Input
Amino acid sequence: MHENIQFFQAFLKNPLKVGAIAPSSGELTQKMVDGIKPTVNSVILELGVGTGAFTKRIQEITPNKDSYLGIELDKDLIKSLRTKFPDMRFMCGNACKSFALHKRSKLGKVDYIVCGIPFVTLPNDVGDKILLEIEKFMDQG
Ligand SMILES: C[S@@+](CC[C@H](N)C(=O)[O-])C[C@H]1O[C@@H](n2cnc3c(N)ncnc32)[C@H](O)[C@@H]1O
Output
């Protein structure tokens, strides 16, 4: 199925959680991924993967399968992400629990977080929980 149609279907199913009617553009994707310099010992964590607009670009710079973890709430999107990116690791789950999900994945230290979560359309308390989770990955100072 075409990516835009799949994204729009996900939006119709859950407009506030998806928060957009189409995937991010190539220009935005480039801006989001610019500056990421992954190493074999670190992990890029992507929250709110959608149809994988950022993932496509991240895949080009990811050293191996253990250097990436994508967390997405929608199980239909997860199913198609696993088909589209067989060498990337995805977990179906809530970004509010990303620290525990990453721990369960047994992957290495997270050095980069790429976040596609639509904070504007989510309830404030959910947004706050996700930001607190992100903080847990931060090094002291
Ligand atoms: C605006 S879309 C962005 C998708 C993609 N990153 C892009 O830029 O095209 C937001 C995505 O975040 C997912 N999402 C929303 N809340 C989430 C949560 N609490 N945990 C994990 N994923 C979530 C939605 O299902 C949707 O796929």
In short: Residues 10, 17-20, 23-24, 47-50, 53-54, 71-74, 77, 94-96, 116-118 surround S-adenosylmethionine (CB under 6 Å).
